[in-house]
Amino acid sequence: MVVDPELWQEGEPSRRERKGRRGGLAIVASLLFLIVVIGGGCYFGYSKLQGHMPPPDYSGQGTEVVTVEVVKGDSTAEVGRRLREAGVVKSVKAFTIAAGEKLQTLQPGFYRVRKRMSSQTAVAALLDPKSRIGVVHVPEGRWASEIYTQLSQATEIPVREFEKVDPASLRLPEPAKGEVEGYLFPGRYDLPPDATANQLLGMMVDRFKRETQKVDFSRGKELGLDPGEVVTVASLIEAEAGRPEDYRRISRVIHNRLKIDMPLQLDPSVLYARRKRTIDVRERHQNIDSPYNLYRRKGLPPGPISNPGLTAIEAAMNPADGKWLYFVTTNPTERRTEFATSYNEFLRLKAKFDQWLRENPQPQN
Fold first, then answer.
1. Which element (helix H / strand E) includes 138?
2. Residues of the chain with CATH 3.30.1490.480
3. Class of the CATH domain delimited by 65-133
């Protein structure tokens, strides 16, 4: 039997059918290629268009108030992330675009801003000094009681809460002997808005330990001082010094008097005992019965009379060379202090101070 070659043998497609199938596959492949090309082009076009679209941003001045911390070393993008996490701005990119180079001088600390602010408004808020909260500058030489008042005014925590803090909870250095006076380190502080009185004083004690970490207190031994007495002498120097060049000279007067067992007779110690500040210290003030009255007792007071900085601490162990036994702040307005080696010289300096008092009468206490 002759078989027509155009016919299928059992189970085999014809030549015509095979050609039809190859044509269909080609069409499908072409369509897939077009889809890929068109899809890729659309994606590229969309991406390019998206790159020119502004990033998500809120509008307006914002809603409820929140507090955000700016940490030392934060970049603009890091500040933006903190704001986004707090719900202040909608996107980091919008914030960084709005900020540009404007935040280079932004100080670390706590800032009061609002949720859902436009990025431009958020930048303006961070640059507004009124937005920064909890900033306290504690000067050298303040009493602990004065620091409590200053912290209370900045935080609205009552002074009594600071007075009630147990010193044992503050991790004080051993030389402090459980007393905070002298160990609340002066300087600028950014106070967390939710901190307690205990935590704030703890910050200051920790700062003292950190700042004095490299101070070699053993040098005080050469002058007969243990570390606690170094801080006590530093507190006396800090209370008396008016200018940087006075610190080591006042230290020398204190050490010269201690060496010959001469009373220190320092007015700030009397004022500390009385808890009143005045420039005009009279004989009636010097009669107070107190271990801090260095007119009536010899040697050092039982502890610091102020909270000194590093300059005073270093000066306590490094007095200037000199034979001075006296010093008088002859012009408090100019913070001018003069030194003397004899009592007659002292009387001459005291006369200059009395003249200043006559020209600048002080309130009577």
1. strand 135-138
2. 65-133
3. alpha beta
